[in-house]
C-alpha cells in the first residue's frame, strides 16, 4: 500500500476489491500499461488524480482505477455515480505526439475500445452516441451504461499529456428514480454479473491497440475509426437529434467530417458539432 492509499501491482497480488493485480499485469504484458497499474479502494476521482500525477511527471501508460469514486466526473458539470464494487472506474495516462485539435480521435477510439471489450466479454453490441457515451438496450429504449471523459494539458502546438477516463456500470441492479430512464448496467441488460477484472483486461488491451494505431499511423487509424463508427453507431447518420450546446439546435445526423466531428442537417443547412451533448429529439430536456 502506498502513501497515497493506492495498491501497486508490483507489490500486491490481490486486493480487497477482488482485482488480482498480478494476474492483471501478466495479462497486459506487452502493452504500455503493464507494470503501471494503481488501484484505489476509494478515491474522489481517478481522472483528477491522473491529471495531477501527469503534472508531476508520471510516465505514459499509467492506469489509475478504483473500487469506488466519491466525486466521479462526467462531461461538463455532470457527476458520475461510482458506488463501491459496482463498476469500472479507470483513467489511463497517455503522452501522444499530436496537436491539441486531434485529441477527439482518442475519445472516439476509447469508445470503440469499450465497444470491443464489452462485446468480447459479454457478446453485447453497444451503441456509440457521439462523442463519448455508450448505450445498451432495445431499439427506442437504449440507456447509457458507459461514459468517457477525455482531458488534456497542451501547449499551442502539442499535447503534453492526455487522460482518458472511462466509467462502466457493471453490477448495478437499479438506479435512483431520476436516472432510471437514462442509465443501465451490464447486469440489468443481461441478468447476470460479469467479472470486472476480465472486462478491465479486455478494455486496456483494446485501448492499447487503438492508441498504438493513432500514434504510429494516424491517417490510416483515423480513417479506420470513421469507418468503424459508421458500422457500430446508430447516431452518426439518420438520427433526429437535439444539440444542447452551441445555443441549441436540432436536425438529422449526416455522418462525421474528416476530423471526426458530427455533422447535422438542420433547416438552415449543414452544421458541425464541435462540443455539447447530443440527444434524441424526444429527450431534449435531458
TrEMBL record:
Record keywords: Transmembrane included?
Answer: no
The protein's annotated catalytic reaction(s) are: biotin + L-lysyl-[protein] + ATP = N(6)-biotinyl-L-lysyl-[protein] + AMP + diphosphate + H(+)
InterPro entries noted in UniProt:
aa-tRNA-synth_II/BPL/LPL (IPR045864), Biotin_CoA_COase_ligase (IPR004408), BPL_C (IPR003142), BPL_LPL_catalytic (IPR004143)
Provide the Gene Ontology terms for cellular component: cytoplasm
Write down the SUPFAM superfamilies for this protein, in alphabetical order.
Class II aaRS and biotin synthetases (SSF55681)
NCBIfam families, per the entry: birA_ligase
Q: What is this protein called?
A: biotin--[biotin carboxyl-carrier protein] ligase
| Organism of derivation | Silvibacterium bohemicum
